[in-house]
Amino acid sequence: MRVVLDTGILMAALITRKTPPDLIYQAWRKKKFELIMSEWQLSEFCRVSRYPKLRKYLVPSEAGNMINGLRYQAHVLTDLPALEISPDPADNPVLAMAVAGEADFLVSGDKYDLLALKNIEKTKIVTARKFLTKL
């Protein structure tokens, strides 16, 4: 099973333990599914992890360890197709990862933009809680 986790899910996994995002991240670490990422998302993750409002919740070394694990163990795409599908243009690269990576699922907490789409091509867009039921 090929899966894209949006950056919000990855950040939630880093900040909160034993929640659906964390359980999904731990399942990936146990090789329960193949994680699809991109260079764009790795850069976004680094940028977001430095937001002042999140810094008080993050341990920098844990964020760095997560980034290194993602970079070397996930399937990282370098080229993404140009898509203009989401009402929020910032979400289009996430959708492009799902298409280019031929993902079965895109896991997100963005109920107004990504989750509202329900799917893109063959990729189902679901919440973390719903994805856990698929594992």
Task: Describe, in plain words, how this protein is organized in 3D.
The protein is α/β, with parallel strands linked by helices. It has helices at residues 7-15, 20-29, 39-48, 52-55, 60-73, 92-100, 114-117, 128-134, and strands at 2-5, 34-38, 75-77, 105-107, 119-120, 123-126. It has a six-stranded mixed β-sheet, sandwiched between helices. A hairpin with a 2-residue loop joins strand 5 (119-120) and strand 6. Helix 1 (7-15) packs across helix 2, helix 2 crosses helix 8 (128-134) and helix 3 runs antiparallel to helix 5. The N and C termini lie close together (10 Å).
Write out key terms for the chains shown.
six-stranded mixed sheet; alpha/beta
Provide the β-strand percentage band. Answer: 15-25%
- Strand/helix succession: EHHEHHHEHEHEEH
Largest sheet: 6 strands, mixed
**Sheet/helix structural class:** alpha/beta
Q: How would you describe the shape?
A: globular
| Number of strand segments | 6
Distance between the termini: 10 Å
Kindly report the average pLDDT value: 93
Number of helical regions: 8
Stretches where pLDDT is under 50 for at least 5 consecutive residues are none
Spatial strand sequence of the major β-sheet:
3-2-1-4-6-5
Helix content: 40-55%
The Cα radius of gyration reads 14 Å
